[in-house]
Each structure stands twice: as C-alpha cells, then as structure tokens.
Amino acid sequence: MIVHRNYDWINQGQENDIAILILKEKILQKNGIEYARLPTYEFDGEFFVSIYGWGDVAEGGPSSYILLKTTMKTMTTSDCAKRRNLACLSENECKVICATSVDTGDCDGDSGGPVVFHDGTVVGIITERINTNHPMDEKKPRQKRIFLRTFSYRNFISFHELRHFQKSFLRYTSELIIKSSNRDHIKPSNVGRIINGRNVSITEVPYLVQILKDSNNSIPICGGILIAPTKVITAAHCVYDSDKKSFEERLYIRYGTPLAFWSLLPVIPVSRIVVHRNYDWINEISINDIAILILKNEISQAYRVDYARLPTYEFDGEFSVSIYGWGDVAEGGPPSYFLLKTTMETMSTSDCAKMLYPGCLSENECKIICAVSTDSGDGKGDSGGPVVFHDGTVVGMITVKVWTNDSMEEEEPWQERIFLRTFSYKKFIDFRELNHPQKFLDT
C-alpha cells in the first residue's frame, strides 16, 4: 500500500487523499473488466459527472448491495477557489473538483470510487465527505462535494515515481482483498434486463417473494405473490420437481428484498401446496397454472413487506402493465441478481380470443391476459411474479412462457405473452374454497 507522503492521515483532510494498492496477482482485461482511462489534460468548467459506489443509500445507512450511480455538476476552478479549500487555494493551484447537487450525492462507503466525465474519462476520485451550505440564498440547499482531481496527481499515479515521495504500508497488504469478479455480490452493470427491463426497489412491489428449493442463499426458482400472512400464490409449474411427476420435496419463501441471493429477513418454509385441480401438469399449458403455498409461519406487514391488492372486478382493454422478476435477463440466461421490471401492452379479451389460446376460447370465457411488446418480456425464472396495473392492482400472474409470431406483416415481429388473469381465479384464491377443487400435499 502506497500513500501520498503529504496526506494528513490524523485529521483526514481532503488534500492528497490518495493511495495506490499494489496487487499480488494481475487483473486482466477480459470478461467485462477494463482499466480506467485517466485524463491526459486538465478538465475545467461546469459539466456533469457521474459517481459510482456501494455506499449508504441514505444518511445513516443502509449500504447498497448493488452498484449505484448518480450525477453531479462541477464548478469551474475559479469558483472552487472561492470556497477557500486547502486543496484549491487558487485557480492555478487546485487539486480538487468542486461539485454541487440539489438532491443527490455520495455517502459513506463510496470513497475511492470514480468521478467520470461523459466520455468515460475518470477525472476524479471520491474522497472524504464534506457537507457544507452555500451562503447564497437557494430555494433548496445544495449538497456540495469535493473530489480529488486525478490529473493533479498524475506523477504520483505513474509507476516510475513510486520510489520517490511515497510511504509504503506493507503491513496492511494482507488485510485488503480486491474483488475483481463482476459476480461478487453485485449484478454486472451490462447485465440488467428482465429482457429489456430496469432495476427497481422491492418497495415498488412489497408483496413479491422468491420461491427457493432450499433454505440456503440460493437463487430463486420462481417468484410468488404474498396475499395474506400465510398465503402465497404462484405458478403451478413452479412447485413440481424436474421430472414433473410430483411436488418439490421442500420449498421456502424469501421476502422483503430486491436481491436474488440474500435478505435480512429469515426464509419461511412452506407447509402445504395447493394446486388447481384442472392444471395440466404433464404438458404445462398456461390454463389453470396456479398454486397456493401455505406458509408455516406468518409474514407480517412491515417496511418492504405488504400484501398484494387483487382485483375486485374484471380488467379488460388495452393498457400498460408492469411485470417483475429475477429471471433470465436474455434468452438462455443468465438470471438477474437484482429485481427487474419491464412493461408490456395488453390486448382486449375479444382480440385475445381471436388468438385461439387455451384459456381464452371466447370474449366471455377468458382466463388469461394477452400482452405484446416489441423488445421486452419476461425470462425463465420470472414465473409466479405479478402483472401489475398502473394503480398497483395485481391483475395477472406470469405463468408458462409462450412465444408466437403474429401472422400480420409488421416492421418488427411482436412478442406475444400470456398471463394468468387473477380475477378469473378469485374463488380458488379465496380461503373458504380451499377444501373443494384442489389437490393438497402436506410437506
């Protein structure tokens, strides 16, 4: 470890807050890993920069488990010098970048991360946090931030200068581990699509749970919808084993997290599986592809945890719906490690009936929702997740994947998708009906 010789490590000031870590092993440029591009000339002016990190997502925590990004606007060095920071005493002697933002900034744990210009050049490094208030009257107080200017330390960063004016703290080397793999507790930044979707918080769908095959931190096999303290609905094909001959021996529920591998809350075992009696589990067709999981322990409503609102009347027409899940982000995988969301457009039941899909033989007898999209959809592993109307009502559930091509000539082919219509199964979902048309399995 090599620390700048003029860094004030006792008071932890912003000036010269830079160190170099020499790694025991090489990190090669492959599998999405590249070396940073540092500036070859001085960047100065008012422009937007992006900052990245896994630090606290709010004052006081908690920290983020996925890489986050925000944007701030820099000041000119002349304006920065007016702040009389020790590292920027004049316009010609300014080793920091001053930046402002109304409502964003970095938090504890982001230090050492990059400050990136729009062309990808790393013009700065996140250093010690400073919260200051500008004396000018603002409608909103600005957050001010000082970043280390990488160009000012180009000689220190150059390897051939290391023998001259730095300190080496080799005793710390064994305590530091550099994680280069893009699978170490984060989702790769170039992977993030529920087939063209985006990352969302679990607070957007606090009733969405993960179905696991074991109680360890495994990747979910399907999603599920929490509708009561001990009741989850999911796709029926999710509860069968790989041979499609019987139920999974054990199932567990993980909840209250957007991550596909971890939660602060304990997993809950499933005590009973209830499958619709008319589900064709051999052929896995989309009709009646619904099951109820009875949980061994109750899940109470809390922060990030709530029960889904199911429809009280029939939704019909052409409207946008959102789908959520941790399934494959592209055809053939890999799965997502963070909750993703995308949007599709539904068809009317009359148009859906014209497709002659099982489950929608006529406009008045349609138990599915037909949806279309040109570039998005759900992937393998999203089954059991919610299909949500704009008011938050769970109008459908993701079931068996069906891809078809419309016979009409289009500039680009439509992806067609069938979702189970939750309103059509309201009697099955109702607790009072559990002793009639279903199969039971106590686990």
From TrEMBL:
A Pfam cross-reference name: Trypsin
Domain Peptidase S1: start-end pairs: 1-157, 194-420
Domain of life: Eukaryota
Name of the protein in its database record: Peptidase S1 domain-containing protein
Organism: Blomia tropicalis
Keywords in alphabetical order: Disulfide bond, Hydrolase, Protease, Serine protease
InterPro entries in alphabetical order: Peptidase_S1, Peptidase_S1_PA, Peptidase_S1_PA_chymotrypsin, Peptidase_S1A, Trypsin_dom, TRYPSIN_HIS
Assigned protein family: Belongs to the peptidase S1 family.
Keyword Disulfide bond set for record: yes
A molecular function (GO) term: serine-type endopeptidase activity
Record carries keyword Disulfide bond: yes
